[in-house]
Write a sequence for this structure.
């Protein structure tokens, strides 16, 4: 069965960077795009961008361009999301999610990671 | 401010039916069939319940159904059960990905 397992909780100081991992299992990692989404406390979900794990192609939401970098390591079936120049507004739960359509950039997210809480505090 | 508008909360008694709305624009919900709904129990991974407006993934109870009229999509749950108590959010996946703010369903 398909699983996306994310790395553990992070606490960072303002101005620092955070890198969250998302390890996939149960399917061919390079066949499905991975998206990253976050949810700040008391807020709705916010789409951050996607990565094609096979080619490394990415598309980032305008709000995060210049601060986010998404990468993948096919040898360990893992996607990564790095966010730099953190502020308190970046305190949120970060999720990875798989697009449910084969090799499509967009579609419903049929599997999600369990979430990685990131706290930014001085 | 979420791109798609959902009510903050809905409630119903066991056995009853409820409907959660998700209002967007003609550029997202109204213009395409690309609306999905997710169930989210706190501390767990969100679960896909409906996609392409009204399709149910394998394994999702037929008590859950989706529809759309104009710029508003809806998730209906019939025969409410205690385990349905969760947050529900909608999403539109067109030229970009948009989400609703989420609706907390309370089973009384």
């Amino acid at each position: 069965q398909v699983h996306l397992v994310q790395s553990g909780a992070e606490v960072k100081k303002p101005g620092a960077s955070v890198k969250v991992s998302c390890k996939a299992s149960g399917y061919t990692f390079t066949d499905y795009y991975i998206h990253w989404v976050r949810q700040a406390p008391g807020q709705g979900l916010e789409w951050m961008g996607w990565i094609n794990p096979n080619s490394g192609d990415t598309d980032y939401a305008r709000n995060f361009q210049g601060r986010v970098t998404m990468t993948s390591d096919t040898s360990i079936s893992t996607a990564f999301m790095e966010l730099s120049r953190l502020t308190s507004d970046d305190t949120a739960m970060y999720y990875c999610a798989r697009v449910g359509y084969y090799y499509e950039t967009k579609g419903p997210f049929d599997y999600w990671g369990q979430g990685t809480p990131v706290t930014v505090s001085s | 401010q979420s791109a798609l508008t959902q009510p903050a909360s809905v409630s119903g008694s066991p056995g009853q039916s409820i409907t959660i709305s998700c209002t967007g624009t003609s550029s997202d919900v109204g213009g395409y069939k690309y609306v999905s709904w997710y169930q989210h129990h706190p501390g767990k991974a969100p679960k896909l319940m409906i996609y392409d407006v009204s399709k149910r993934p394998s394994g999702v109870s037929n008590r859950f159904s989706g529809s759309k009229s104009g710029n508003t999509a809806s998730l209906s749950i019939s025969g409410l059960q205690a385990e349905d108590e969760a947050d529900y959010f909608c999403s539109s996946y067109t030229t970009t990905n948009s989400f609703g703010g989420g609706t907390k369903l309370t089973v009384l």
About this structure: Chain A is about 0% helix and 50% strand. Chain A has a mean pLDDT of 96. The interface with chain B takes residues 4, 35, 37, 43-47, 61, 95, 97, 100, 106-115 of chain A (CB under 8 Å). The CA atoms of residues 30 and 91 of chain A lie 30 Å apart.
